[in-house]
Amino acid sequence: MIGAIREERVQSFVYVAALAPEQGETVAQVFYRDEPHPEAPKLAPDTHGFIWMPEDGFGRAVAHRASPAQTRILAAVQRPISIRCIQEPAPAPAWTAKPSWFLLAEEDRMISPGTQQFMARRMGAKVRSSRVDHSPMYTAPDLVIDVILEAARESLSR
Prior knowledge:
By secondary structure, the protein is of the alpha/beta class. It has a single domain (2-156), classed as Alpha/Beta hydrolase fold, catalytic domain (Rossmann fold, 3-Layer(aba) Sandwich). It is 41% helix and 12% strand. The protein has 8 helices and 5 strands, in the order αβαβααβαβαβαα. It has helices at residues 2-6, 27-31, 55-62, 68-77, 83-87, 113-123, 136-139, 141-156; strands spanning 13-16, 50-51, 81-82, 100-105, 126-130. The strands form 2 sheets. A 3-stranded parallel β-sheet has the order 1-4-5, sandwiched between helices. Strands 2-3 form a two-stranded antiparallel sheet. Helix 6 links the parallel strand 4 (100-105) and strand 5. Helix 3 (55-62) packs across helix 4 (68-77). The mean pLDDT is 94.
């Protein structure tokens, strides 16, 4: 994100049910800040140090408002994350230098809504809160588009 801070064409950022660590903080520290939702799967690295979402985790926690066909596709095309990646201290976040918007997913079962509120507040983001799951880009795409367009309109009008 450091390069994005310097990129003048980037006017703002939109976080969608996302993690936004502070400088020196790890993704794991933010992710495990609150107790997990009862439907959230227990995640653990495989023998190669990669974390994969269990197939049933998509329908129970990642996109519980999506259709079964959508969750099967999400499971089939997932990419793992390295355990090392979530343990690496974050560099200076882009949200310290550019305005940000945050779509807070009130029914998120992966990232606690309380954690999302905490991150949005500390970054000074404009918050749009909605009763959506962790993957509103699939289950409420019009809402995601609205937030992106709002950020674009406000950023470009400065």
